[in-house]
Write the structure tokens for this entry.
Amino acid sequence: MLADRVRICVRAGRGGDGCVSFRREKYVPRGGPDGGDGGRGGDVILVATRQVRDLETLCRRPHLRAAAGGHGRGSQRHGAAGKDLIVPVPVGTQVAGDDGALLGDLTVEGQRLVVARGGEGGRGNACFKSSTRQAPRFAERGLAGDERWLDLRMKLLADVGLVGLPNAGKSSLLAALTRARPRIAAYPFTTIEPNLGVIEADGSPIVVADVPGLIEGASDGAGLGDRFLAHVERTAALVYVVDAGPGTEVVLDALHTVRGELAAFREGLAARPAVVALNKADLLDPAEIEVAVAAVAELGWPDAVVAVSAIRGDGLEALTGRMARLVRDVRAAEAAAAASAAAAASAAPVVLRPGQDRLESFTVAREAGAFRISGAALERLVAKTDLDNEEAVAYLQEVIARAGVDEALRRAGAVPGDTVLVGETTLEFA
């Protein structure tokens, strides 16, 4: 089975710790602190590639972890940065967070998405040297990297999607139009995963996807229909493949069922440009074919109904021409819309605003009998501080007092002895 969905856990590398070191050499009376910084942890990066067919590899290895950064060392030697973890995924993969929010859509070969950033490395004691602090005996700890659960969904990138009820002849039609060789048999649900084929039309390739048979209730998951329908979303046009053999009424019922499931699955999907292929026309005489074509044309496809036979090859050239025109028109409209959006974006004025990631940018709020201080830079500083080191704690108190945290806590009603929460760290206001 095609592995088109997987849930993975990604963890970026932890940053390396800073080093506490002093230069002690003969004939160097004032060597001073020379501890180096820790290296940054590695990122976890998803890269789209056509060399990967599906998400099967990630199904077997759902936990991914990047390398940690190296610790700093003496003589101001910095730790090595952790190696990034590059994870290849198929082109057409969507990445969603644990809350369902879409984080990225990898639709182009080589496109990259950083899904977990490595933690910062801690500074060594050489960074804290000053005229009033000439021998700092503390360094910062490295920060943990991002860790999160992700849902990956692969959707085939095709120009045209063949949709229809089971045994309508979609796989046979794909085999007749392209060099693809899907499994073909005389029983329903022979095709259990989408197949791709390529048609050369007007000197340009058209990628065609054979979507497994849809049944009533497919949009609600019947017969894995919701997973199959997801592969139709990216197509520029659709070909409704209908078995014309049983008669006109059956043809119309089949079209109604398939279009209804498309509309129920995603708004606007049923309104996508389409061609109706009345397959197995070799089972009908010319008069019956004319009646079926006229009946379908009355539904709104007066110029987009083609009687074809995948066995004899009847109508395949006409069908290919219709598909090529539809794809060309849709892609041209999409390119024009993209160019217009790019022009509007380039014409928009650039507004420069001061950065918000500063120690002075924080908020104070009451939380369960304590005071919660929120601020990215402040939380990062506290997380890097070695709270078991008195000098490090004294430096932290000095910095946060200079940033106005003490005064803000007093205005909020804090008194000595109250609990103060900063990120995952619990402190006491004094």
The chain has a mean pLDDT of 83. The chain has three domains: 5-154, 160-336, 363-428. Residues 316-347 form the longest helix (32 residues). The chain has nine helices and 18 strands.
